Amino acid sequence: MMAMSFDVESLFAERMRNVRPSLTRELLKNAGGPGFISFAGGLPNPKFFPTEALITATEAVLREDAASVLQYAVTEGYPPLREWIAARYKQRFGLDIPIEQILITSGSQQGLDLLGKVLLDPGDVVINERPGYQGAIHALSMYQPRFASVTLGDDGLNLDELGHTLRAHAGRAKFIIITPNYQNPTGITYSEARRRAIADMVRRHNVLLVEDDPYSELGFEGESGLPMRAYVEDRVVLLGSFSKIVAPGMRLGWLVAPPEIMQRVVIAKQGVDFHANNFAQRVLHRYLIANPISEHIARIRAGYASQARAMIAALECCLPPDIPFTRPQGGMFIWVTLPESADAMVILKEAVAQKVSFLPGMPFFTDGGGRRYMRLSYSQADEATIEEGISRLARVILQHLDAPATEQFGIRSAMA
Amino acid sequence: MMAMSFDVESLFAERMRNVRPSLTRELLKNAGGPGFISFAGGLPNPKFFPTEALITATEAVLREDAASVLQYAVTEGYPPLREWIAARYKQRFGLDIPIEQILITSGSQQGLDLLGKVLLDPGDVVINERPGYQGAIHALSMYQPRFASVTLGDDGLNLDELGHTLRAHAGRAKFIIITPNYQNPTGITYSEARRRAIADMVRRHNVLLVEDDPYSELGFEGESGLPMRAYVEDRVVLLGSFSKIVAPGMRLGWLVAPPEIMQRVVIAKQGVDFHANNFAQRVLHRYLIANPISEHIARIRAGYASQARAMIAALECCLPPDIPFTRPQGGMFIWVTLPESADAMVILKEAVAQKVSFLPGMPFFTDGGGRRYMRLSYSQADEATIEEGISRLARVILQHLDAPATEQFGIRSAMA
Questions:
Q1: What is the pTM of this model?
Q2: What ipTM was estimated for this complex?
């Protein structure tokens, strides 16, 4: 018999049909090499990785309990690690969270995928921030929702717009997803009044609130605001991460959810990978209980605060005053708003040629907007490098604003 | 304003509506404690975990390269680990696999989830083995396919039935998923002729073949059969695992796919968890290159071969000859076929009371069948314990076959 011609394209699921490799990623493929300065990735600074303490922790748990450390484990995660997380919420905020409501995930990114899987049918509405975290947009997009983005201001979501959006999508909106602390990409923090108002609106509508909170420990001046769970316990899913306070290479985060939701999330997690890496969970837990974590986190906070100050000073110095940017109280990001005519994709291409990078705004918008914005991460570079990088970048920006993009670099049409 | 009553059930996605906690899992909650003998879980024997070598490997990679080991990493996985996998296929089978076609997954279970995500729309048809691996059924079920199960014989899938099924579902069947080596749950191995015939059928129809191959290194007498990729390279996705040859707690496996499929899988993986645990990947890679792996695997093979022989001898001794069971050439499982009237769920409940466990057949069937089957795992217990456990279990089975289940334990209706 003849072999049939193989039409591999027809085998893909509908959800994959419109997925294309990211243009930003393509541009950043040329980034790197000696002297290159990256403000693009949201990468923790490796100088804060607790290398020696992790070696000690690994040796301890493997010597004491290898038969369990290296074996399959329960889907919910290592109970003492979940207890540590609960104790930390208690210590920081006085919040009581039963460990049955805590699941260890393979990074908080996996929490987003699990929520998409458990909650979203195609066409369901997700209310998110505009701009909002691109990793959440990517993870949730796989479940084919419609995004209804609500403008993010300096204090949080615009409340009028949120109310209008909730009413417009009543019955189809499944959840609101926000990052109240040191948001990615803007660096802004929600005010207490805004948190309270959003909690009220969640209580008035049949929706969940997802609080994506990976940066919460990185406040420059003391503790972050109260978790949204303190306002609406039964309607909040809270995502946390060890990536920013210990190490992202360990891919460990957590998801806090009320019992009905947790039950489904555990079933979904079981199908996905049985459980988070048990070896890494055990090493991490041993590290956490054997070391002064609050002091470690205080060092990270102080380091990022100093780097943020250096970047703000450099931006104030090098950019004209009519280009506003955020002044974060914590976290890793500054958000720059360029004039309307600017095109951050064009700027990025030239910036990479000048050995400096950032993320353009577009991946943070679900409606094709965002060309005039830039996300700068100050977490990776030291203060002197930040100064040099911002100075390079400012030159590229000023040159771009002096001349229309199409004439200057001649690539706009090729990239559209 | 009044708070609306919170209807959490209405927030769940369609795919979660019919998901219920597993009855087997509930029954096994009472399993364990002193003297308990488990033939239920597919757990590797911890005596083969290379504890000291992993401590050494961890110390080495962290001392040398912590800034990279603990950082975010590329979605595809650590390139030298992918090279190691390619080299092993070359060494074992003479197969050339470019590393661009290899992705590191969070256990091979994640490979199943990613394939569901990339390939399946609701209502698509998955052709699987009857009985087939319950973890694959669980992972893929989340994407709401219809399963068309094809009877598994001693040499592999029934070819007439497979041909009929492919024709009946032409245009809607996305892939055939099989475990040709030491299958879970039956322990059977596909003959070379059957592999070749299935490859021919895949070539004649517009489908993919997914080869789920976690046990392939565990052959009792030399190498397993050739991977299906050797027969139909461009139409096969191959899933492999480090769980059975190193340690499942590290949650590392791999997925081999042709370029068009790999491109989509990488995009999906990025949304799910960015990349597999980098810390574990680096430790594992260092362990693999610094130790004589073939000798380590030879010890595991010899150990499981001896345990399998012990279980076969005990079954031959304790069960009547009209109860057939498989005699595996590798892997971890034996499959017992009880008389038609038997009910393995009822037997399990009594067995747990007698401090011995197994998995009943039902989770391996997608059509509600399987009550008369038992899966026994010999990987965890030593030879003497296997003898004692089979003797306990045989007593429960014989008692069950002597009396109608409903009268004997009085629980059938309660469990239906």
A1: 0.95
A2: 0.94
